[in-house]
Amino acid sequence: xxxxxxxxxxxxxxxxxxxxxxxxxxxxxxxxxxxxxxxxxxxxxxxxxxxxxxxxxxxxxxxxxxxxxxxxxxxxxxxxxxxxxxxxxxxxxxxxxxxxxxxxxxxxxxxxxxxxxxxxxxxxxxxxxxxxxxxxxxxxxxxxxxxxxxxxxxxxxxxxxxxxxxxxxxx
Length: 171
Known about the structure:
Blueprint: E1 2-3, E2 9-10, E3 17-24, H1 30-34, H2 37-47, E4 56-59, H3 62-75, H4 84-91, E5 101-103, E6 106-108, E7 111-113, E8 116-125, E9 128-137, E10 145-149, H5 154-157, E11 165-170
Antiparallel strand pairs: 1-2, 3-4, 3-11, 4-10, 5-8, 6-7, 8-9, 8-11, 9-10
Helix pairs in contact: 3-4
């Protein structure tokens, strides 16, 4: 039996996963994919609303990178650029309690749009928070950049600039 900070009996619940990242500019191409009806329908089912047609990119490092690589591994995504030591450490991160949601890819007019894995989360910045999801595309160039989706245009909602540090709490 576990006791909470007030000495009361409680359940053994896993600690939430937090990833801290630094806002960075992306390639400016996410809107091409995010605006697709096939994806928006799935985001609607996941988030209960359509999402902003773009992503907020966060650079991560150190222990935050370990957590993110653990999510990538859970998604089945190869992280070829990461060192063997980093991959080994990420495998020891306990994320069994974090649910992965599959976003299916599709074909349209002979063009393939890849799938992704989403993890529901909350973004915290300056005493404000917004429901969001960490989105890990099946095909991505970077293993140390977290892509965040939300119903809100996060840069505008929080008045974020490159270099600002934000917290992502996976739920």
